[in-house]
Amino acid sequence: MGARIDADEKRAQEMVKTVSVLLAGGVRRVLWLPLVMNPVGRNSNEPRYGLLNPDGSVRLTGTAFETMAQAASGATATAVSGKGLTGVALEKNGKAQAFVWSTAGDVMVKLGPGEVAKPIAAQGGSGATGSVKLGAAPVQIVSNRPVSELLSTL
């Protein structure tokens, strides 16, 4: 995972972390502004990131936001804080999705059977299973277990 990330990935990772912290803190409706990135508009140098390009196509940040919105819709949120990990775990219909990252260097996490960790704010990339090294980049962990069971193993 030591590969250099580009600006779009960095912005998407920052958005995922921000939304995760908000959800973990009890916020139930999250809006992300600006919707459309406008590099030549008013405040074009402001470090905010739109979800869409000026032509209406979805940016990486928009794809990550949509992934989080789908997971959060109708779910209950639990803060993830401990063992070097930070983020939010969302549970819907007895199944968990967690958006987590390490705040303490690389952290090894052992995923259970059928669980996968996906880099939601990266260009390409597939999911990992088994033992996974988590770093500063947020990942989405998808589990068929409830949040309490998932968090007990992270």
Structure description:
The chain is of the alpha+beta class. The protein is 25% helix and 25% strand. It has helices at 7-24, 60-72, 147-153; strands at residues 76-82, 85-92, 95-102, 107-110, 116-118, 131-134, 139-143. It has a five-stranded antiparallel beta sheet with strand order 1-2-3-7-5, sandwiched between helices. A two-stranded antiparallel ribbon has the order 4-6. Strand 1 (76-82) and strand 2 form a beta hairpin. Helix 1 packs parallel to helix 2. It is globular, with a radius of gyration of 16 Å. The model has no long low-confidence stretch (mean pLDDT 87).
Chart the SSEs and their pairings.
Elements: H1 7-24, H2 60-72, E1 76-82, E2 85-92, E3 95-102, E4 107-110, E5 116-118, E6 131-134, E7 139-143, H3 147-153
Antiparallel strand pairs: 1-2, 2-3, 3-7, 4-6, 5-7
Helix pairs in contact: 1-2
Short overview:
With 154 residues, this protein is an alpha+beta fold.
